């Protein structure tokens, strides 16, 4: 069942689709041995490296859950997509795109080299650390808690409950933040930051330390897949233009310097984090054949064993298989 390409004869009942996903999670769990836990944030070393789980929330009302779906973990770099959305909503799209570009870097997410060597006039995209810190500096408020409030409010609008900050991870990030502080000082020197460096970094560390589950990630993905609207009631949660720009950035820049390979072999907008989470948005598709989740879906994946680019090894392989079997690619 695990091998093969697009399966045009897949049963579409929830029972059958659940069996497929359960089988695939079991198959790809062994791939966790090919990765390692993030080491530069000590608190993330406490995760179970063998964990793997997935949630798929369809616009048709169907939800599939398999594997380690109850694990809580922190957003880490997935928060960059959320804060970019919030900043665009608070400051305007044109304003934000004047402060941060939309181009892939081809470098590691925490690179400083490309900033100096390319002499850029603004960070190349909001999903590497330099761009994300710049975006965080534009959030309104004088304290980190004030700046994070619209982030929490947006997430609460999606979930119906308020998320919490993981203080242990926040302290671990704050104490081991040498590289991000170096990036911050460079951004300050060249005039990219709009506000106090210490408050900006405190906000950035906190946004990365918000606890979520893969159910939460799937819900975010579902809203983005639906161009910012809640598929249950048609309410606009994120303006359509902002949702679409965010999906473009997720596709071109969301998987660090493996974004090109992910777009080629999986073909859906996604954003990863070094805690092992992956947020994916599958827009509605036009196909001659009926396929699972053809009306679109959001996907949340958790697998904390990472590859060298900082993405979940088993999570990417699981997503690639599902995208191939069910023809989820946007292309």
From TrEMBL:
Substrate binds at residues 77, 129, 173, 180, 204, 256, 274. It comes from the Bacteria. It is an enzyme of class 3 (hydrolase). Its EC number is 3.5.1.2. Keywords: Acetylation, Hydrolase. Homotetramer. This is Glutaminase. It comes from Lentibacillus persicus. The gene is glsA.
């Amino acid at each position: 069942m695990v091998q093969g390409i697009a399966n045009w004869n897949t049963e579409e009942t929830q029972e059958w689709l659940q069996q497929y996903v359960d089988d695939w999670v079991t198959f790809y769990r062994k791939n966790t041995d090919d990765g390692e836990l993030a080491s530069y944030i000590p608190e993330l070393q406490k995760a179970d490296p063998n964990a793997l789980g997935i949630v798929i929330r369809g616009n048709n009302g169907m939800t599939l859950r398999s594997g380690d779906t109850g694990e809580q973990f922190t957003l880490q770099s997935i928060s960059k997509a959320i804060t970019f959305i919030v900043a665009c909503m608070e400051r305007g799209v044109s304003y934000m795109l004047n402060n941060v570009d939309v181009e892939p870097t081809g470098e590691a997410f925490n690179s400083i080299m490309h900033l100096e060597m390319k002499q850029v006039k603004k960070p190349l995209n909001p999903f590497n650390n330099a761009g994300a810190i710049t975006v965080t500096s534009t959030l309104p408020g004088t304290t980190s808690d004030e700046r994070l409030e619209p982030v929490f409010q947006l997430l609460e609008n999606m979930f119906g409950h308020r998320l919490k900050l993981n203080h242990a991870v926040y302290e671990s990030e704050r104490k081991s933040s040498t590289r991000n502080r170096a990036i911050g000082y460079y951004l300050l020197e060249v005039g990219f930051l709009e506000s106090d460096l210490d408050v900006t970094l405190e906000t950035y560390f906190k946004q990365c330390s918000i606890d979520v589950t893969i159910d939460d990630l799937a819900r975010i993905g579902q809203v983005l897949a639906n161009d910012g609207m809640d598929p249950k009631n048609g309410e606009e949660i994120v303006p359509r233009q902002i949702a679409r720009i965010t999906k473009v950035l997720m596709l071109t820049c969301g998987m660090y310097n493996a974004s090109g390979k992910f777009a080629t072999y999986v073909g859906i907008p996604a954003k990863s984090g070094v805690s092992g989470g992956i947020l994916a948005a599958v827009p509605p598709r036009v196909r001659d054949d009926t396929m699972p989740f053809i009306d679109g879906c959001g996907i949340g994946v958790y697998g904390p064993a990472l590859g060298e680019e900082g993405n979940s090894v088993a999570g990417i392989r699981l997503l690639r298989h599902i995208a191939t079997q069910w023809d989820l690619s946007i292309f």
